Amino acid sequence: MINRTLPLLAAGLLLAMSAHASEAEHVRASQAWIRVLPGDLPAGAYVVLENTGDQPATLRSASSVRYGSVMLHKSSSEGGVSRMAMVESLVIPAHGKAELAPGGYHLMMSKANPPVKVGDDVKLTLHFDDGSTLDTRFVTRPANATDAGDPHQH
After folding, report:
1. Is residue 6 part of a domain?
2. What is the pLDDT of residue 154?
3. Per-block average pLDDT, block size 10, for the chain (154 residues)?
């Protein structure tokens, strides 16, 4: 009897696990852009992340074949002094949004190879807490850009 129920139990567990969607499956990326600075200066990447799921999703990191280093940072201003610090994660609330934007959370990227130019499309892979990933196309904008530009470019 045990020999027959064990495979059924295992099949049931696999089905239950596969029914649980990953964090990345519930996250939609929009308005993704990169501010390209001159020379070898680090670039900032910005994006709006919308979580359509019933559970929070946690962005842990990002990577790109075009950049040797991609780190999640947060800018802040206290008493007229601007600061930037690396952060471990960013939570996107269930049925909510998190925005990576100038002056707040952003991806700090350096060691571009080959160099990235304004107008390039750059793919970044967003990595979530559960190990899932979301490939996102970022458009590059000049150093004086303040937002993603024309919304029809996305």
Report:
1. no
2. 37
3. 53 50 94 93 96 97 96 89 91 98 95 92 97 97 81 40
pTM for this model (two decimals): 0.81
The residue written with tokens 């967003």 in the block is 126
Total residue count of the chain as it appears in this document: 154
Tell whether 128 is covered by a domain.
yes
Alpha-carbon distance of 120 to 141, in angstroms, equals 8
Q: What is the pLDDT of residue 146?
A: 81
For residue 77, is it within any domain? yes
> Taking the CB of residue 70, how many other CB atoms lie within 10 A of it?
22
Give domain status of residue 72, yes or no. Answer: yes
Tell me what pLDDT residue 77 has.
83
Domain at 128, CATH number: 2.60.40.1890
CB 116 within 8 Å of CB 109 = no
List Cα–Cα distances, 64 to 9, 44, 109, 136, 151, in angstroms: 40, 13, 9, 10, 23
Q: pLDDT at position 21, please? A: 77
Q: Which domain holds residue 42?
A: 22-147
**Amino acid, res. 134:** L
- CA distances to 37, 39, 75 from 79, in Å: 27, 31, 14
